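Researcher: I'd like a candidate sequence for this fold, 53 residues long. If you have to choose between options at a position, lean toward the conservative one.
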């Protein structure tokens, strides 16, 4: 039931992190503050889908 997700910076829109989450316990979109190397600061990162193919 765990799905791979990518975390994208909301300011520069770059995909910086890949992680997984349990969709059964966390059905809503995931947001977390993480470090963005392009922005060189801590910014909010939002969950996105990873294309399979």
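Model: Candidate sequence:
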């Amino acid at each position: 039931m765990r799905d791979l997700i990518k975390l994208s910076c909301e300011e520069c829109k770059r995909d910086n992190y890949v992680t997984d989450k349990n969709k059964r316990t966390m059905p809503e979109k995931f947001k977390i503050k993480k470090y963005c190397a392009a922005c060189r600061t801590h910014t909010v990162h939002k969950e996105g889908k990873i294309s399979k193919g």
